[in-house]
Amino acid sequence: MSIHRERISNISLMAMFVIFVGTVIAVQLTTVYMSLGLALILCMIHLLKPVSHGVRDVSLLSVLYLLGYWLFVCLNLFIKEYLNQLGLQRELIISCSRLSLIGYIIPFLFFTRINKMTINYMKMGNFTETIYFPLIWHGVKDPIWRFLLIASGTVIVSFSFVIDFSQDNIVPLLWVGILFALINSVLEEILWRGLILSRFVDELGEKWGLVVVSIGFGMYHYSIGFPWSVCALFSVFGMLLGGITIRSKGLLPVMILHFIMNILFVFSGLIFNM
């Protein structure tokens, strides 16, 4: 995969979108045997020489995602069963089970060892780079650090209207929320922005790569238990996170915002009361 990509036709662009987002949705609705069939079809597309280079590359990335999904499922079941046997509280089990995201990451890491990423967001990132609000590349220009302060303050104030700060378990919930947010934000950003977004920006460019990966990111949340309508909102959230990653050229800024959002999700009941 190379940054020297061919000019992408509308048909190829649509094909790449359908292949990847379709894979993200389909794997959550099918059995492991049906997923094997889908993986076989994707491998055949990857091997077809008449098919454009970009479509073949995205087909291969989709196979890696399929493999990662089932590794995630197996790890998730193992972690939950093991922690249930230890008699841990439900919230702690849910938080620790997010370690199963490593299942998604493993295939992409192995692939990276044999096929280096030309564009690589697996870096710290630069807080002094600029971003534009509200359209990332167009709007009011701000440094990343100030944009993060404004965005964090906005979401904290917004969620304060739906969070019950008088609940008896507020302190224990804070600690388990920090654990959940730390595991989830770091691993999701490594997967979706560090590994997947890097590949798609290389194939499609920054804007289309961001759109495709953000929609995939939103749809992937269905497997966690969110309805499709909420998944669509997560796609919008994914656009923001991906935009910060692209503009900062790394993961630390976006991990911070993701961490704050996850803690607010915990306090609002979106995580443990589903």
Automatic annotation (TrEMBL):
TM helices/strands, residue ranges: 60-80, 92-114, 144-163, 169-192, 226-244, 251-272
InterPro entries, A to Z: Rce1/LyrA-like_dom
Domain CAAX prenyl protease 2/Lysostaphin resistance protein A-like, chain residue ranges per copy: 173-263
Coiled coil regions, renumbered to chain: none
GO MF annotation: an example: endopeptidase activity
Keyword Transcription regulation among record annotations: no
GO BP term, pick one: CAAX-box protein maturation
Protein name according to UniProt: CAAX prenyl protease 2/Lysostaphin resistance protein A-like domain-containing protein
Superkingdom of the source species: Bacteria
Keyword annotations: Membrane, Transmembrane, Transmembrane helix
